[in-house]
Write a structure and sequence with these properties.
Layout: H1 2-24, E1 37-42, H2 44-52, H3 55-60, E2 64-69, H4 75-82, E3 87-92, H5 93-103, E4 107-116, E5 119-122, E6 136-140, H6 143-155, E7 160-161, E8 174-176, E9 182-186, H7 191-194, E10 200-203, H8 205-210, E11 218-221, H9 227-231, E12 233-239, H10 246-255, H11 258-267, E13 272-274
Parallel strand pairs: 1-2, 1-3, 6-9, 6-10
Antiparallel strand pairs: 3-12, 4-12, 4-13, 5-10, 5-11, 7-8
Length: about 280
């Protein structure tokens, strides 16, 4: 009888210990049902603004949205890979593919949200006709956005690119540069502040909006029916394996809503377009 009683006590202690350990550590992370905070890394404009527009809708579903803002194109992916955030929202799929290839990561896109028209913004010159021999034009220094910038310059007659290079164009694919324009490769986020030293800067819409630039400051935009408009849709990204968990599904549902569609159309004067 004593042995039976001792066994019962030990079993009860074991069950209590496992329960405590489970509550404290087991089952945590992105898929923990008790964790109702969705943490998302995002560029400030327009991504964080778009996310914040659905905070109330997520709260009504029992979720707390925490937006962590980054000013570069690398750290949001690092934070997502490391599990410091549940998702990120700042990039398009070509950039994501390039990042995964170069870093051996397994990040995946789970939902389209919007498209940002890249523009050519005024620096020291107000029109392409004013370009002089040797003038400088700033472009993003990451592979996918630089190709996009070069195609936009080519579409406006500033340079000519090799046939067929499409959205894989580099400076080496420039076959005609009648005014010997110097293409200056810069970190995308720094181009707005560099405009006083450039004839023009080719700038992603998020950085242009963040710098207070408007359509009055631009001389050209990507066409709405361009290859870029279909290719460079900004997406919600998570680490592989998290595509179907509750947080991811709740986040994607919230951002692919009429609330977000109306917010984008009412806020960005055409520089940002919903793509879902």
């Amino acid at each position: 009888m004593k042995n039976i009683k001792r066994f019962s006590i030990l079993a009860a202690v074991l069950v209590l210990t496992l329960t405590i350990l489970s509550a404290c550590g087991g089952g945590g992370g992105n898929g923990d049902a008790a964790d109702k905070t969705i943490k998302v890394a995002a560029s400030p404009t327009p991504h964080a603004e778009i996310l914040n527009s659905v905070a109330d809708a997520l709260a009504a579903e029992g979720w707390t949205l925490e937006v962590v803002e980054f000013d570069d194109y690398v750290q949001p992916n690092v934070a997502t890979t490391d599990g410091d955030v549940d998702a990120n929202y700042f990039q398009h799929v070509p950039y994501l593919d390039q990042y995964n290839s170069e870093n051996g990561t397994d990040l995946v896109a789970v939902g389209n949200v919007h498209y940002e028209a890249m523009g050519v913004y005024k620096g020291t010159k107000n029109s392409f006709d004013e370009l002089a021999d040797g003038d400088k034009i700033g472009v993003p220094n990451d592979v996918t956005n630089e190709a996009r910038a070069l195609q936009l310059l080519a579409a406006n007659g500033v340079i000519t690119l090799k046939d067929g290079v499409g959205l894989e164009a580099t400076k080496l694919d420039i076959v005609d540069n009648p005014k010997n324009i110097e293409i200056v490769e810069l970190e995308a986020a720094t181009i707005p502040s560099a405009l006083p030293d450039l004839a023009f800067g080719v700038i992603n819409a998020n950085y242009a909006l963040g710098a207070g630039l408007t359509t009055d400051n631009a001389v050209a935009y990507e066409a709405a029916d361009s290859e870029a408009a279909e290719t460079y849709v900004n997406v919600i990204v998570v680490k592989a394996g998290n595509e179907e968990n509750e947080k991811t599904q709740a986040l994607v549902k919230a951002v692919q809503s009429d609330t977000v569609k109306n917010f984008i159309l009412d806020t960005y004067n055409g520089a940002v377009q919903p793509k879902f």
